[in-house]
């Protein structure tokens, strides 16, 4: 019997094309029909391969998850950007290709990201999710995140609520 294992590791320069592809697939899957089309297209367009090259070269903390030799997801993380929230670490993004969602990879990637933040001595964790992205909101609630704050993002003049989930 062959066993195919998933691997989670820090991103390397060889991952940039795959990261750009995962970003596009995941964002289209998560936000098509939710965010205005032009805003979504611009946001995806900014995350081309060269963006990922710069991010990795500049030392950004990016985890990738590979399964059966394919990059299927990523997480970006670092210091919490919201001073009002009492957590030192933040997962900025955690995305999987749509066909790999709901299979346990997201939970494993979250656990690895949380572990990397702890290794870097960042206590507490915050993750923001758009309130209308019910899949993400449910995911973070199932992982035990406490809904502690709300905010908003503006796309093409429209307000979109967002929720901050925190873990101690």
C-alpha Rg, in Å?
16 Å
Query: Which fold name is given in CATH as the topology?
Result: Aminopeptidase
Rounded average pLDDT: 95
Instruction: Please report which band the strand proportion falls in: under 5%, 5-15%, 15-25%, 25-35%, 35-45% or over 45%.
Output: 25-35%
Q: What's the architecture in CATH terms?
A: 3-Layer(aba) Sandwich
How many strands in all? 7
SS-derived structural category:
alpha+beta
Identify low-pLDDT runs.
none
The largest pleated sheet is described as: 7 strands, mixed
CATH superfamily: Gcn5-related N-acetyltransferase (GNAT)
Task: Give the helix level as a range of percent.
Answer: 25-40%
Strand order of the largest sheet: 1-2-3-4-5-7-6
CATH C-level class is: Alpha Beta
Question: What is the overall number of helices?
Answer: 5
Q: Cα distance, first to last residue? A: 41 Å
**SSE arrangement, N to C:** EHHHEEEHEHEE
The count of domains is 1
Shape: globular
What would you call the quaternary organization? single chain
């Amino acid at each position: 019997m062959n066993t195919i294992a998933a691997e989670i590791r820090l991103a390397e320069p060889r991952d940039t094309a795959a990261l750009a592809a995962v970003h596009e697939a995941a964002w289209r899957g998560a936000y098509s029909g939710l965010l205005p089309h032009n805003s979504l297209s611009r946001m995806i367009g900014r995350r081309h391969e060269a963006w990922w090259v710069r991010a990795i070269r500049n030392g950004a903390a990016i985890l990738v998850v590979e399964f059966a030799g394919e990059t299927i997801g990523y997480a970006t993380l670092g210091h919490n950007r919201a001073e009002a929230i009492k957590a030192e670490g933040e997962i900025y993004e955690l995305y999987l290709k749509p066909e790999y969602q709901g299979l346990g990879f997201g939970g494993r990637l979250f656990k690895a990201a949380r572990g990397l933040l702890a290794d870097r001595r960042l206590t507490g964790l915050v993750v923001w999710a758009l309130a209308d992205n019910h899949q993400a909101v449910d995911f973070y609630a199932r992982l035990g995140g406490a809904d502690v704050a709300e905010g908003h993002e503006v796309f093409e003049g429209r307000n979109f609520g967002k929720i901050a989930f925190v873990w101690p």
